[in-house]
């Protein structure tokens, strides 16, 4: 027989708002108790769990006067051993509180979510602290690194400067200027100063011709001996004319004009004839040195080209044969270069080639200019000769 609550009894709904927090703890304590009972009582607890499930799922029965949950009941439920010590039927008690359990399931889940949220926030806070510590460490490293770099950079600059100094000390030969035969000559065509009317000073010109004779020796003192004898012989003939009347022939033009006026210009062994052959010999040397200055390393080939442009057309087969022998015996470029330096071994330096180009670049243009002036003089007075010797 069902019992109903007396008319004056407070409704359950009026009590529930005051039980929000206690019920949550009740649910948690009940869950812990059922787990403890499952470990100790074996099969009896599953029956209670079934009763709990059935009570939770079944319709809620109205509470009778003896089944009304009072504050003392709640306090008893919060105890650790209230269920077992008082002998209360867990199924009955759970059935009576089933509506309350159902009503407070959602707040319990919200509390669990709150706890998980708090746990996540704590973990996030710890991660932030770790990240902040790492950032601080990185800042300290960054603060130390520039100082270290500043220490390293001067070391690198010092090492670089030491390396450059070492290279400068180790390679003095490459930067040292090499003196060549053409920069140490006692007399050079480039040193001659012409008169106002392009007059070529006689003595200076002859001295410059004497100064270039050693080039023939450097090409081969034996094989070029005949060429050298002819070259020096012509210089001596002009010098004899000069000393025959001191002060009368200050320039080469004055000698030629004097012999033209006296009809001695075409006489054999005259100064005019000697100057003709000396001029041809100088052209031969100029063409050869121009090939060297152009970068050729083939000395025999350069000599042969120069001979074909200048002297060959004035030589008979005998003299040509002599030159042919001389060309075959011409030295290599290395031997010829060694003969052009003042200090032994300078031809091996990298600055030797630039030194030769520098000196010949000054010497040859002056030489060519003076030969051009003489060509114009002989052409003007028709003093050229096609005679073959």
From TrEMBL:
SUPFAM superfamilies given in the database record: Glycolipid transfer protein, GLTP
Region (Disordered): 1-176
Keyword rRNA-binding: no
Residue span, Glycolipid transfer protein domain: 200-340
GO molecular function annotation: ceramide 1-phosphate binding; ceramide 1-phosphate transfer activity
Nucleotide-binding among keywords: no
Biased composition (Basic and acidic residues): 118-129
PANTHER family: GLYCOLIPID TRANSFER PROTEIN-RELATED (PTHR10219), PLECKSTRIN HOMOLOGY DOMAIN-CONTAINING FAMILY A MEMBER 8 (PTHR10219:SF25)
Protein name: Pleckstrin like domain containing family A member 8
Organism: Dissostichus eleginoides
Classification lineage: Eukaryota, Metazoa, Chordata, Craniata, Vertebrata
